[in-house]
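Q: I'm writing up a methods section and want to include an example of the input and output format. Could you take the sequence below and give the corresponding predicted C-alpha cells, formatted cleanly so I can copy it straight into the document?
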Amino acid sequence: MGDPQLQIGMKFRDFDQFKAAVRNYGIKNRYVMNFRPNDSTRCKAICTRGCPFYLWASLMTRGVSTVQIKSGHLKHECAKEHKNRHVNAMWIARKYMEQLRADPSWKLSGIMQAVKLNQNVEISRLTAYRAKSIALREIDGDEATQMASLYDYRLELLKTHPGSTVKFRCDDGIFEAMYVCLAPLRAGFLSGCRRVICVDGCFLKGVYGGQLLSAVGVDANNCSYPMAWAVVNKENKYNWSWFLQLLGEDLNIENSHGWAFVSDRQKV
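A: Here is the clean output for your methods example:
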C-alpha cells in the first residue's frame, strides 16, 4: 500500500481499500486523483488534470464486497503536482505515527521537512499542526474517553493489585476526585522505608485541568518512593484533608509519633 503498482484485474477487499491504494499511488507518483462516479457498486478513479488516465472498478459479484479493477488507461499525459490534497493531516498522522510515538516533541518544521523530502509535497504549518495533534491524540488517547472509563480503570487496578485502595468522590454524579494507593507500594513502604512522607501538588494540563496530589517516601538508598496520589478538582484544605485522611488509613497512622511530614507549604 505504500507504493502500489495498479494493474487491470487487481482485487481489493472493498472500495475503501481501492480508494486508499489509488490515493497512495497518487501521492507516491505526485498525481491528484478524483473518484467519479463513486457509489456502493462502482468507482472510477480519474486524474484531475484531465489526462486519459482512469481506473474503473466494480464489485466482482453482487452481494460480495470484493472489488476488482475491470478496465483502465494506466499512463498519464500530464505534469506532476507539487501540492497534493491527498497528503492531508489524517494521512500524515498515520504515516508518521511511529516517529511521533518515539519523539512526541517533534517540531512542526521537522514534520514539514520530512513530508517534503519523502513525498515531494509541500504542506502548510497548519496541516503539520493538525497531523501532530491527531497522532498524539491517537497515541495518548482522548481525555473524554479516558474519563468515561475511570470505573473500568479502577476495576483493572483492583484485579491486578489485590488489596489496593482506589476511591472516587463525586457530587451529584459529577467526578471530583480520585485516590489511588497500590498495595505493593504500600507494603514496600511499611516494610523497608523511613517514616518520612513528602506531600506536594501540581497543576494538570488538559481539557479538564485539576490538581495532582502526591505522597512520596524515602527508601534506604535515599531515593524517592511513591506511595499514593490523588486527582482533585482544585487544591484546597478540604481536598488535602480528604487525601491525607485516606493516606493515614492506608498506612495505619494513628498518631504523629515517629512520623515526619515534609511540605513546601508556600503561602498557605
